[in-house]
């Protein structure tokens, strides 16, 4: 786009080349780009012959003076001003005019100066007085890279900077093609991608590539590899391709098991995706036409893999076509695309979404979370799991509107993103079952105890009675808040995670393996010490949503269901049996050991504390949400009591009561149940004089109030 037409306009007794034939303007803020049709005498932009630049773009002031053909004894007009604005004058006055009005206010770029131009290059809106058209026309700049004409100098500088950030650093008027050296080639998981400058800053580039999301891409690849083992081939969609790195990894490693479609609504990103496909020796199918890179294919092996690249809105392509696997990774929240994703996704398919709006999900911008997700949240010690349950609740509501239910397979919430992977179950019954798991949460702001509200529509007279703690009776005012609505079901599927771990080992994804091991232990609520690696992928009999996984120990049930429903009642009975087996799922939420530590006491090591909790008869595991978090089914009172029992006092200078406190702490730890039942006596004890405090009455609730103080 943008070819100079040979039109001549007489101005001040000289011929000046300007754009002619046809002008199409598109206003974008302060910028206005004009598209010019080509003349038969001028070569096309795609040719290698250099284009002629505008006369206002010069390297030196002397070059600008040559255009005026200065002579001492003759009056000459300004080459960049119309006669109505600046009349012809002698050389000394014209020199000052060119230097002060045009050259000093120019914009410099790669040795060229884009001087201000007053010629009628920009089409103007019709004026009431036709004779004043030229006098009303303002000055403007001509972009050396594209065909834009911009009025303000600051806007022109910003316009040039955007070209530089996109890698368009060489002028179309001087050379046609952009230099290859401006594209940096990065490699990840045996896949090469070209990226533009500032590729890690989404505001400055169209093709965003974040190296910190490598773990996220590996987890999604493992989930897709597990689905590819269930049924082949599967149609998968990367709705926001950017550089196309994720779709390229799918096609390069899974090959004929998947049919990859990479979509992006940005034209520059689509071009970058096509170049990256050719760089990785992949065929590109664009608009039902295949473009084969013959040179790249000749050097490598015979590769029949084809990647379809589309340029349309993500909602449009998900409405038009059906897929088995859909991944959503927009910039920010993904709630705007959930309805389209669940509209045509196939039964027993998988939808994965990455949410990067962590400021709202992590309760830093609570009003944004209310606007996007319809949830009331506050900052808690378990804020990452709270964010994951907020996203799953939004996913559940979107799926239920399409008469589909979900089963959560994987949930990961780290510093930069929240990843949710769900399996789609078609039908109103699964949709109803999933919708029933969206409930409100009662959170105590004093001790951070929490519990989901009971099911039912009846209004309770005192909702504080549902909380295990007694902070409302011992503390003044309102002590609890209602958060949500949230997802109250399980966050993981153990069998799916084990198969993901198997795929991660098979494809050598080293970064994902430690996290997957932690997720398996968290799903089973066991410590890593009890993690078993002997039961491999083939030896595990796993049933998910009525899908049987092939196992050597089963005879009649060792088969795969390739995304189709069974007409008999075998699948329904298996699903009911699975519900009864999963009754002992992992407990909701976790406790931070630092948050509940006792003032003046050294808490035990985390692994030892996990052992103490398991010895007390509770299920316990670490969590990936918090490195110092403990997921357990123990009540908070028992959690604090065991923590205080095995904590040692911090000895300081002049402290003589340390051994006494330690001995009495052990004695208090042996009386766990008595300490839990004696909360009312402890409140009266706090109102007594401090001199009456002795080691014999140093109970668990006293330490709790010390932390509150």
Automatic annotation (TrEMBL):
Pfam families: TRM (PF02005). Residues 1-44 are annotated as: Disordered. It catalyses: guanosine(27) in tRNA(Tyr) + 2 S-adenosyl-L-methionine = N(2)-dimethylguanosine(27) in tRNA(Tyr) + 2 S-adenosyl-L-homocysteine + 2 H(+). GO terms for biological process: tRNA N2-guanine methylation. Keywords: Isopeptide bond, Metal-binding, Methyltransferase, Nucleus, Phosphoprotein, RNA-binding, S-adenosyl-L-methionine, Transferase, tRNA processing, tRNA-binding, Ubl conjugation, Zinc, Zinc-finger. GO terms for cellular component: nucleolus. The keyword Chaperone does not apply. Residues 143-163 form the C2H2-type domain. It is found in: Nucleus, Nucleolus. InterPro entries: SAM-dependent_MTases_sf (IPR029063), Trm1 (IPR002905), tRNA_met_Trm1_C (IPR042296), Znf_C2H2_type (IPR013087). Residues 26-39 have a biased composition (Basic and acidic residues). One of its GO terms (molecular function) is zinc ion binding. Coiled coil: none annotated. Gene3D superfamilies: N2,N2-dimethylguanosine tRNA methyltransferase, C-terminal domain, Vaccinia Virus protein VP39. Belongs to the class I-like SAM-binding methyltransferase superfamily. Trm1 family. This is tRNA (guanine(27)-N(2))-dimethyltransferase.
């Amino acid at each position: 786009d943008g070819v100079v037409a040979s039109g001549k306009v007489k101005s001040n007794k000289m011929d000046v080349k300007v754009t002619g034939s046809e002008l199409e303007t598109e206003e974008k803020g302060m910028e206005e780009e004009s598209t010019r049709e080509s003349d038969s005498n001028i070569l096309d932009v795609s040719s290698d012959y250099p284009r002629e630049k505008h006369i206002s773009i010069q390297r030196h002031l002397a070059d600008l003076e040559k255009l005026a053909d200065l002579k001492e004894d003759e009056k000459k007009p300004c080459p960049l001003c119309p006669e109505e604005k600046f009349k012809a004058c002698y050389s000394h006055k014209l020199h000052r005019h060119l230097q002060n009005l045009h050259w000093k206010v120019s914009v410099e770029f790669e040795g060229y100066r884009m001087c201000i131009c007053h010629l009628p290059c920009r089409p103007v809106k019709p004026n009431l007085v036709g004779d004043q058209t030229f006098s009303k026309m303002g000055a403007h700049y001509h972009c050396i890279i594209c065909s834009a004409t911009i009025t303000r100098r600051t806007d022109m500088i910003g316009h040039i900077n955007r070209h530089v950030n996109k890698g368009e650093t060489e002028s179309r008027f001087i050379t046609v093609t952009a230099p290859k050296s401006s594209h940096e080639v990065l490699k990840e998981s045996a896949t090469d991608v070209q990226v533009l400058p500032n590729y890690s800053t989404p505001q400055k580039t169209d093709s965003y590539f974040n190296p910190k999301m490598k773990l996220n891409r590996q987890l999604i690849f493992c989930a897709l590899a597990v689905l590819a083992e269930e049924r082949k081939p599967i149609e998968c969609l990367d709705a926001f391709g950017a550089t196309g790195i994720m779709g390229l990894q799918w096609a390069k490693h899974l090959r004929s098991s998947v049919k990859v479609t990479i979509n992006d609504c940005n034209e520059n990103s689509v071009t970058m995706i096509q170049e990256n496909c050719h760089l990785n020796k992949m065929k590109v199918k664009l608009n039902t036409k295949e473009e084969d890179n013959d040179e790249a294919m000749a050097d490598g092996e015979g590769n029949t893999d084809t990647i379809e690249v589309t340029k349309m809105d993500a909602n449009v392509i998900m409405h038009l076509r059906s897929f088995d696997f859909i991944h959503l990774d927009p910039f920010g929240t993904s709630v705007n695309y959930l309805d389209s994703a669940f509209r045509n996704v196939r039964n027993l398919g998988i939808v994965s979404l990455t949410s990067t709006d962590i400021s709202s999900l992590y309760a830093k911008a609570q009003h944004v979370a209310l606007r996007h997700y319809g949830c009331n949240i506050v900052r808690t010690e378990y804020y990452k799991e709270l964010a994951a349950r907020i996203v799953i609740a939004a996913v559940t509501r979107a799926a239920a509107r399409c008469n589909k239910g979900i089963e959560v397979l994987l949930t990961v919430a780290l510093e930069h993103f929240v990843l949710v992977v769900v399996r789609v179950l078609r039908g109103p019954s699964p949709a109803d079952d999933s919708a029933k798991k969206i409930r409100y949460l009662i959170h105590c702001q004093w001790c951070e105890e929490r519990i989901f509200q009971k099911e039912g529509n009846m209004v309770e007279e005192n909702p504080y009675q549902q909380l295990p703690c007694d902070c409302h009776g011992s503390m003044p005012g309102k002590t609890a808040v209602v958060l949500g609505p949230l997802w109250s079901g399980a966050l993981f599927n153990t069998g799916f995670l084990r198969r993901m771990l198997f795929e991660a080992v098979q494809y050598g994804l080293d970064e994902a393996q430690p996290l997957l091991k932690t997720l398996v232990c968290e799903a089973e609520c066991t410590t890593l010490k009890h993690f078993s690696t002997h039961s491999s992928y083939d030896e595990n009999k796993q049933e998910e949503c009525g899908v049987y996984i092939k196992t050597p120990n089963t005879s009649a049930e060792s088969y795969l269901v390739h995304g189709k429903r069974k007409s008999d009642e075998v699948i329904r009975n298996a699903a009911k049996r699975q519900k009864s087996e999963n009754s002992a799922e992992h407990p909701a939420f976790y406790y931070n050991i630092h948050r509940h530590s006792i003032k003046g006491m050294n808490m035990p090591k985390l692994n030892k504390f996990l052992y103490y909790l398991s010895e007390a008869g509770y299920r316990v595991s670490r969590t990936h949400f918090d490195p110092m978090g403990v997921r357990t089914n123990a009540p908070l009172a028992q959690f604090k009591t065991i923590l205080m029992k095995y904590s040692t006092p911090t000895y300081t200078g002049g402290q003589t009561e340390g051994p006494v406190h330690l001995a009495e702490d052990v004695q208090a730890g042996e009386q766990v149940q008595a300490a839990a039942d004696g909360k009312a006596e402890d409140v009266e004890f706090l109102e007594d004089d401090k001199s009456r405090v002795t080691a014999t009455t140093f109970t668990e609730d006293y330490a709790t109030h010390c932390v509150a103080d």
